[in-house]
Amino acid sequence: EVVHERLMVEKFAKVPARDIRGLRGPFLFTGGDAGFRMLHSHFDYDCTLIHKRDGPDDAPVFPYTLDYGFRKPCMVHKCPNDTYPGLWTVPLNYLFGKGDDKYNPCSMADACLPELETSQDFFEYLRFNFESFYNTNRAPFPVFLQETWLQDEERKKGYFRFVDWLLEKEDLYLVTVSEVIDFMRDPKPKESYAQRHCTKE
Questions:
Q1: Do the Cβ atoms of 139 and 62 come closer than 8 Å?
Q2: Neighbouring-strand partners of residue 89
Q3: Residue 35 falls within a domain, yes or no?
Q4: Residue 50: inside a domain, yes or no?
């Protein structure tokens, strides 16, 4: 089914199938080893496995290969048990929403509680979580969410304000998941890193 969906995206959205190099399982279900065998045969990475953090000061996990299997607590069953040499996992590291007296963990940016109402709230939430990555080990910071969540005008404003804030920084890049994997395979110093640019055909 997933392989055929990739072909449908190529046909109807004009995205070359070769450019669709990974996926996230629906509802964060991986299908266990059966799902990972399919991924291993057809894709470069998975972006489904949740990686628990105890709090914002707990360092997030970098993307890694499943050469030695998945060795973290399984947050959404079934998780893979076998090894998948060369297949990358891009972790869904916990993010944190600030409750009244504690931090509430979530696996995706649109899932944290309490729900945010203003653009300022959403901007501060994204900035807080980005800084928790940046100030610990600088693992890649993803903003994984569903597009429909940004149909709310306040959230969209907060999101674009966050992107503008990131673009002011000279020591980071906004990249795709595939670019992260390519960099992890062949890291380069900042001075020689060439960021890809979007092209229109």
A1: yes
A2: 46, 64
A3: yes
A4: yes
The pairing of beta strand 50-51 with beta strand 92-93: parallel
Q: What is the pLDDT along the chain (201 residues), one digit of tens a residue?
A: 787 888 999 999 999 999 999 999 989 999 999 999 999 999 999 999 999 999 999 999 999 999 999 999 999 999 999 999 999 999 999 999 987 678 899 999 999 888 888 999 999 999 999 999 999 999 999 999 998 999 999 999 999 999 999 999 989 999 999 999 999 999 988 888 887 776 655
Query: 3-state secondary structure string, 77-127?
Result: CCCCCCCEEEEEECCEECEEEECCCCEEEECCCCCCCCCCCCHHHHHHHHH
Residue 151 domain-assigned (yes or no): no
Map tokens 């380069």 to a residue. 188
Q: Does 123 map to a domain? A: no
Assessment of whether the complete model's pTM goes beyond 0.85? yes
Token digits of residue 105: 């963990």
Give the structural domain span for 87.
1-93
CA dihedral 173, 106, 148, 122 (to 10 degrees): -70
Q: Number of structural domains, the chain?
A: 1
